[in-house]
Every structure is written in structure tokens, then in C-alpha cells.
């Protein structure tokens, strides 16, 4: 992992973007990293381009907002369009093909069918955010699965912990498959 | 500062907190046992955490009917012996001003957290601003000298809240923590130490409202101590008797309240210097804006520009001496503020080099790129 | 002040600041007699007041902890002190302008929360200290410095207001009924929870003068003539009559 990794999670309000960012932050702290996390707030968080920024550092984080994202986890076409210009060259984009059709840019793309998987397994798209976190865990290796699991156990709303842990596992599996394919 | 070592509100370790949560934990760690407040964005999470946590410490939480009542309840609790606080944002801070003057004049220690948002009036309730700094200085009528601190990180929302309580108890005065929405809602990893230093009120003998000793901070007994305290916001002598016609009593009291702050500026004022050695250009910043500034300065340094940063942790009393001596050695001084230049005006009073002021009042933070560009403009 | 009550007054106090004939002076004595009857230790008591002539009843006179606060805010200050140190027996004393006009919101909320305070409102139906302007208690039609053509608005019925807000004990007596008033204050002090006593107190200087009652003695006579004990009230009394008695918690 580099000294500072800038991550942006984005989608529309209600997809659990802010929660996913927070869980990632909690996991980062468990991992022993410095963490900064700034989220959409108020009306924005309910709107059509809700975002969570997470910076993970091996050293202290001077500026706590994302300037160029090394990793974009994206769950809506609008958010994809909005945040693509801020991507670092050679950055990684994890997108959900159910919502996002990416263009051709010099980034590494991973299509993770999070929404479809959530719908199939849970009959609701809600856990798609955690499926994406699972894929992130597997693909980047920045956070261990154990720390991500613990972050969910300790900080997700209690009644959703089991479903979220399952969603995390599904995301990890999906990522393993895309890795195999690429 | 602080004369007693205590365990903080949480076990030693690393935590992932929002700025507002960190304020609440800092307060509990410092010994805050009374919170009276009224909800307002973007400060409400402080109140909500205090509501949940204070009972675990046998403390008292109450949601009052408005901010006027909130500050009043805090002062009442302070005189009953509590380390007490309230938190609010601009509109509530406005409503508290009469009470703040009362706390200053009766020398009731208390902490008021203002999570600043874009004003005036209701303004942009969820957006950042830093426009309440002159209100912190001059908000209540009459002459008094407040103490105001400016945190730049979640860690400092914790640390400076503790410091605010220590200063309040040490100097028997209201202390403001001038937070900003951007830091209040930011989450960061922070470290809670195994022990912190806290200051405790001097409840000793002697007249509770003044001595002519240079320290100027009289002991403060509390209600129930059997001292038959006489507390009034009218001009009072050293025992608390109203003296509303005596010019000398008024002069002595107002001057002592000034001196007790001015004579201890070394103890109160804190600033931080970054890359200022050999700097030609210096940015002076505080609060969240100083985060952008440090980032910009580091990039400029990498690019060979001799830039540095002076960060103000204490805004009131204002560090005039630090600013004056720094600006003697600079070719240019730049300020960036999320208001129309409130602190720049203070800097201007003592600045010994050209001062370049950038203000931004659009409810967003000032980016490092904006600062880099300005520095380069000034140098070209 | 009679010798019996001297111990309740700070030794430094030589005289009270009230105008001759002011009801606040006799209310002050009545409050102290009530405390004396109860044999309460003044070192366990805290007296909180706001700004106004009535705010001076306890401060600086009472030989106990006293907190003389801001105009209107005494109850909010008292709430903080009482909640933090429940061992304190807290009494709030204030004027009608202070407690029910500018401070009305704190009054009803403290009653709603049932904070263990006893509030004594010295109601002279006027802002005495500032020169006789209208209060929320000034009767309809009365002349004041700010209602030269007569007050166009109705006054609060404070006892009804406090009953509605949930006070445990609510009573109204005039300072011209010292025995009833003293018993009422004793009851209010001993009942746990929020208790309220309205003490109708003449202000000859600011109210009397403007309403053509020139002599302090006439003020007392007029007040006496207008008080109707609740038990004798028919319900047909005009708005200028003052119904006295215990309304809640008798
Ligand atoms: C915030 C504020 N507004 C106005 C005043 C001026 N003021 C002082 S006393 C008073 C009215 C007092 O009337 P009341 O409470 O009825 O007491 P009384 O003098 O009649 O006993 C006013 C308006 C003040 N001190 N503070
Ligand atoms: S002005 Fe009225 S209320 Fe004030 S002291 Fe004189 S008579 Fe009493
Ligand atoms: Mg009055």
C-alpha cells in the first residue's frame, strides 16, 4: 500500500454509501492506519450523488478530503460521471454494472454485480454497499478480511450484522471471480 | 496545563470519531458533569453523545427550552460546583451572548462550543463557515476578554476541549471552542492517552470576587459550601455586594478581569510553526483552513518555494506578538479565511510585511490549490 | 425587619431598597417567616432571582447562597444549580415582568419538567424598576408608561397558566393576606416538585401613581377591596377582581 490512499465511494442517497465509508474507516483504524472520512451531509446525503471519502494513511493525513481518488467505488451512473474527472491516473474503479456503464478511460475497472447479487440473495438491493466493500477488500488487500469483519460486527446496526457479514463474503467471492477473469 | 492526572473517559487506544463525538469525549475526560443545550445543526451530535454518556458518569444532562436557558443552566450548574458546558452553532451562539457576559462578569467557569456554519442568520445550516470569531470576541456587551480556541482536527476537538475546561477552571472564565462544520462532521482516527492533566477549581478561602494580587483569579466556593455566596451580574465588590453607583468598584473589577487574562497570555496562547525557518512567504491560518494551508505549504516547499505556515490554536487572546515577530522576517504574509477577513484584521494591526487576504464565504472549505495559486501570484 | 428575622438577613444589611409602601418589602418578611416556621437551615438554601425590584428581595438581603441573575432567566439558572446539586433547596423569587413576560418560557417549561423549585412571583402588574411600563400582567385598560391610553391587551391569569403547565402546587395571595401567604409559601416549599405562589404586591410608585391611586395606603386599601377568596367567589366577578386561594395541590 502507498503512504496515502484516497478512496471515494459514491452513489445515490439511500444506498448506504456513508455507512460503507464509515465501516471502511473503522476497519482502517483496526488495521493500524491513519484514517480520515468526510461524507455528504444533510440534503446532499439524500440526493442523487451521495459520496463518502476515506483516506487511509501509513503516515498522518495532512489534508483530510480526497483530492484525486486512487480508488472509486461507484453505484450510480451520475456519481460515476461526476467523480471520474477526479480519478488519479491509473486508479482503480469498482463499479456495479446494474447501475453503471463505464466508458473507456486509462483506469483499472472491476465490474462487481453487487446489486444483482444482493437482490438474488436478500431480495433487496440494500446490502449492495457491503458487497462492494467485500470486493474492495479482496481486490486491494489494504484491509484484511478479519478487520473488515470486525468493523462490521462492531459498528453496523446490530440487526443487520449477520446479513452484512454474508454480503461481505459474497463480495469477496465475486472479486475472486473477476480476478480470475482478468 | 492542569494539575491533576486522571484517566480519560475511554480506555487508552485508537478510536475513529467524528469531531463532535470527540468533543463530547474530551468534555467527559476533562470532568464535565453537566450539559444543558438545545439542538442545532451542525453541533447536535455533541448533545446526543452527552445525553447518552453523561449518565454513565453520574452527570446531569438536560435539553433546555432554548439556548438562552441552556447557557443559564450551565452557569447555574457551574456555581453549584459543576464543570459544565453547552454546544451550539451561530443562531444559538447569538442567543447565548447575554449569558456569556454574565459568566464572564461573575467569573463562572464554563465551556461553550460553537460549531460554526455559514451565517449570518440561519444561513446555510449544513455548510461550513468561520464567521463567529468576532462574535466570540465581542458578542456580549461591555468589556471582557474571552478565551477562544480553534481546533483543526478531530484529535484536537478532543484535546482542545480538555484544554478549554482547564483554562475555564484555571481562569474562572467562559472558554469558547470555535469548531467548524468541516471538522465537526469529519471522522478521523484519534489517540486517547492513558492519562490526561486536568485543572480543578480553587474553592479555597478568600473573597470570591477579587483581589488585587497580580494573578487576579480569586478562589471560587460553590453553592452549598456554607459560604453564603452573593453572586450578581451587577457590579459587585470583592464579597459580591452590589455597588452599582461606585465608579472605583466598577473600574477595579473590569480592569482585573482584563488583567487576569492579559497577565497570563503565555499560559493561554498556543501557536504552531511549520516550515517557517527561512520562509519568504508565510500563511497564517487556523481551524480547518490550516489543514489546507499545511498541505499547500508542503507542496510549495517540494517545488522549491520558501513557504511556511503559522497556525493559530488560540484566537482570543490574539497572539499579536507571535504574528508581529514572524512577519518581521517574511517578505509576504497571506491569510485565508472562511469569513470576510475577521482574523486578518487583527493580523493587519501588527503585520510588518505586505498582507494578502483571501476570503471565501460560499459554504465550502478553501482548497489547497487555491492557496498554492495565491502564493505563486504573490511571488510573481 | 423585626429582630426575630435578623438572623436571616446578612449582617451588613442596614435597610431595604424598596419604596415606602412597596409590597415587596412585606413579601420579603413573609418569605423569611415561612422559612423560620419551617425551621430550615439557610445554609442548605439557594435563592435565585432575576432583574427587577422583586429580584432584590433575596439579593443581597438573605443570609444564604444567592444568585442574582439576568432579567427573565432566573428559573433556567436555578434549574442548572438544582439538577447538579439536588441537596440544595432552591427558591426563585422574581417580578411578574421578569418571570412571566421575558421569562415566561422558562417558567412553563420548568413547571412541565416538574423541576423541584419553589417560585414566588411578586406580581405588581407592572415593570416597577424600569419606570412603570406594561407587563404581561397589567390589567386591561390600565395606564402604564407604554400604554398611555390604557392597556389594550388582556393580562395572563398566572395561576391558570401554571396549572396548565403542570405545577404541583399553585396559589395566589396578596401581601395584604400575610397569614395565608405565609402558609402558602410553607406548603410550596415542602411539596416536592415545581410549586408556584403568586404574591400580589402593590407598587405605589409606578402602578399606583399612574392609575390615580396616589397614596401608598390607598393602594393597600384598593388591593384589599379587590381580593376575593376563592371560596367566596361566585364566578361572576369582573376582570378587575383578584381571586385568591390555592388552585392546585391544596
Ligand atoms: C434583557 C433585559 N431587558 C430589559 C431589561 C430592563 N429591565 C430591568 S427590570 C425590568 C422589569 C422588571 O419588572 P418586574 O420583573 O415586574 O419587577 P418589578 O420591578 O416590577 O418588581 C426591565 C424591563 C434588562 N435588565 N434586561
Ligand atoms: S418601583 Fe414599585 S416595585 Fe419597585 S420598589 Fe418602588 S414600589 Fe416597589
Ligand atoms: Mg413587576
Molecular structure report:
The complex is a heterotrimer of chains A (182), B (380) and C (250). Chain A is an alpha/beta fold and 182 residues long. Chain A has 7 helices and 6 strands; from the N terminus they run βαβαββαββαααα. Chain A starts with a strand and ends with a helix. Chain B is α/β, with parallel strands linked by helices and 380 residues long. Chain B folds into 2 domains: 4-198, 3-Layer(aba) Sandwich (Rossmann fold), CATH 3.40.50.970; 270-379, Rossmann fold. Chain B is 38% helix and 23% strand. The relative contact order of chain B is 0.13. Chain C has a single domain, classed as Thiamin diphosphate (ThDP)-binding fold, Pyr/PP domains (Rossmann fold). Helices cover 32% and strands 18% of the residues of chain C. Chain C contains 8 helices and 8 strands. Chain C has helices at 23-38, 74-84, 96-102, 104-113, 158-165, 178-190, 204-208, 216-226, and strands spanning 45-49, 65-68, 89-95, 118-123, 169-174, 195-200, 227-229, 242-248. In chain C, strands 2-1-3-4-6-5-8-7 form an 8-stranded mixed beta sheet, with helices on both faces. The two termini of chain C are 30 Å apart. The model of chain C has no long low-confidence stretch (mean pLDDT 96). Chains B and C meet through α3, α4 and β12 of B and β2, α2 and α4 of C.
CATH homology superfamily of chain A: Pyruvate-ferredoxin oxidoreductase, PFOR, domain III
Roughly what is the average pLDDT of chain B, rounded to an integer?
97
The number of strands of chain A is 6
As a percent range, the share of helical residues of chain B equals 25-40%
Largest sheet of chain A: 6 strands, mixed
Count of individual domains of chain B: 2
Detail the poorly predicted runs of chain B. none
Tell me the CATH architecture of the largest domain in chain B: 3-Layer(aba) Sandwich
CATH fold-type name of the largest domain in chain B = Rossmann fold
Structural class of chain B: alpha/beta
